[in-house]
Amino acid sequence: MNMTIGNSTFTITLADNTTALAFADLLPLRLNMSELNGNEKYIYLDQSLPSQPTSPGTIQTGDLMLYGSTCIVLFYESFSTSYRYTRIGRVDNPAGLAAAVGSGSVTVSFER
Q1: What is the pTM of this model?
Q2: Residue 13 pLDDT class (50, 70, 90 cuts)
Q3: Domains in the chain and their CATH numbers?
Q4: CB neighbours of 45 closer than 8 A, spacing ≥ 6?
Q5: By the 8 A CB rule, do 60 and 90 touch?
Q6: Is 103 exposed, middle or buried (0-12, 13-18, 19+ CB in 10 A)?
């Protein structure tokens, strides 16, 4: 799957789970994602996706996760967390991701 932010395109490898399959079925998507905590962009979908949340312990730059059953979260900084997420996928090469997403809301396009 590809993710485009402005002029930057990133390849995402989807997780092998029902959440990733359900997300892929929604593609193509163009989402206006909001900023949170200086390390993530998020948006709530109008529909629920299947979830099997686990505690990853550490979030890695480039992780694409589901929080709850409707919140898509793209992480652009690594950090430790006690929150539970369901993995959707991960950016293969997250170099330049933080610069691409910037500090405010950002439009992110996902396509196969």
Answers
A1: 0.96
A2: very high
A3: 2-111 (2.40.100.20)
A4: 26, 70, 71, 72
A5: yes
A6: exposed
